[in-house]
Write a structure and sequence with these properties.
Oligomer: single chain
Number of helices: 9
Shape: elongated
Strand order of the largest sheet: 1-12-2-3-4-5
CATH architecture of the largest domain: 4-Layer Sandwich
CATH topology of the largest domain: Purple Acid Phosphatase, chain A, domain 2
Low-confidence stretches: none
Strand content: 15-25%
CATH class of the largest domain: Alpha Beta
Distance between the termini: 43 Å
Helix content: 40-55%
Number of strands: 12
Length: 378
């Protein structure tokens, strides 16, 4: 993507956010006037604008406490903003329909309509915040036809830790404990271990010590996601090494002469991987034992056409299954498979896409779960 395209996309998003933020702020202010008729519009605008601006600041890699506070406020505001926008738009559509039916839209109707928006938003956000603290377990059974060398193996799959995001480190110890309780043979982490900026992690030393407790018979392996990149990329690599997590960058390794594990670089890293670039790995498959099953960690499930019969299983994340409703409706349209166990046809590999074990942006889950995936090979 060219610099001009990036600037255009940034300006488009900024204008879109500015317009929708103004719409939500105006509707909130008009409703608050029912309760506080003398509410000062200028003071409201200043406070509201500062809160809304934290969402933008949260994506800028500022160092220090200011970044942490802005990131925290912006993340929570994102959740409120999405549902305020959704429900105010729905309310206005209802009002338009009522007007077409010649129903008078009274001030009382405006008040109770706005109240419904407020209560629904608080309800959805509250549930989302609670649900994001819960860990769910999902299990799949897969078989690889004549390739039986890996039969009986258990792979535990987690993706999208997003270390550095709000509340991400609070969940880490519970995640490690739950994985160890499953007694995996292999742990696979296909990307987005970090949340763009390494400096956002509050206590990297503690996170390293926690991840080092992961216990798998044949070890812990990872590939890079689109957020595992940028100016602090070298710090991320060092973190993974210290955590005893083996990173595969368009490389493969043989696990106990029973299974071949491949790790791919993400095709769209935010800020880049330095000198590393995703490359064609077709030549690697020629070097592999054809009798062993091949599992590929590829963070974003958009490259299915790159793989054929030589690959038995692809494990991915990235989509979060939309994370909060109605995001799941969007991811279903964008990706051939945005969640679950899928196979296009008999000449294609099986694919398992997880909704992830962490959250990006708002620390919420509505209609989706933070999950740990167990894959039993038969």
């Amino acid at each position: 993507m060219s610099k001009a395209s990036i600037v255009f996309a940034f300006l488009f998003v900024l204008i879109l956010y500015g317009g929708t933020t103004y719409y939500v702020g105006y509707r909130l202010f008009r409703w608050l006037l029912f309760l506080f008729p003398h509410l000062n519009g200028f003071i409201f605008s200043i406070i509201y604008s500062l809160i809304a601006f934290t969402l933008i600041v949260g994506f800028i890699p500022f160092p220090g406490a200011f970044k942490h506070i802005a990131n925290w406020l912006g993340s929570y505001w994102m959740g409120f903003f999405i549902y305020f926008l959704l429900f105010f738009v729905l309310l206005d559509i209802v009002f338009i329909v009522l007007r077409l039916l010649n129903v008078e839209i009274t001030s009382t109707l405006h008040f109770f309509g706005g109240l419904a928006v407020i209560l629904l938003t608080i309800g959805f956000v509250s549930y989302g915040l609670y649900n994001a603290t819960q860990l769910k377990h999902v299990s799949y059974s897969v078989s690889f036809d004549e390739k039986t060398a890996a039969s009986g193996m258990k792979i535990v799959l987690i993706s999208d830790l997003h270390l550095g995001a709000v509340n991400s480190e609070n969940r880490l110890e519970a995640i490690v404990d739950e994985i160890n309780r499953l007694k995996p043979d292999l742990v696979c982490m296909p990307g987005d271990i970090f949340n763009d900026y390494f400096g956002s992690i509050q206590n990297p030393e503690k996170a390293i010590e926690t991840l080092k407790k992961l216990n798998a018979t044949y070890g812990v392996y990872a590939s890079l996601g689109n957020h595992d990149a940028g100016k602090t990329f070298s710090h991320m690599l060092n973190f993974l090494e210290q955590s005893n997590i083996t990173l595969l960058n368009d490389e493969y390794t043989v696990i106990d002469d029973r299974l071949i594990l491949v790790g791919r670089l993400d095709p769209n890293p935010i800020g880049g991987y330095g000198e590393l670039k995703r490359k064609d790995i077709g030549h690697l498959f020629e070097q592999m034992n054809p009798d062993l099953p091949v599992v590929v960690m590829d963070h974003t499930p958009i490259s299915l056409d790159e793989y054929g019969k030589e690959v038995d299983l692809i494990v991915s994340g990235h989509t979060h299954k939309g994370q909060v409703f109605p995001g799941n409706l969007i991811t279903k349209r964008i990706f051939e498979v945005d969640y679950g166990h899928y196979r296009r046809n008999e000449n294609s590999p099986q694919v398992i896409v997880t909704s992830g074990v962490g959250t990006w942006g708002m620390p919420m889950r509505v209609g989706t779960n933070n999950e740990i995936v167990s894959i039993r090979i038969h």
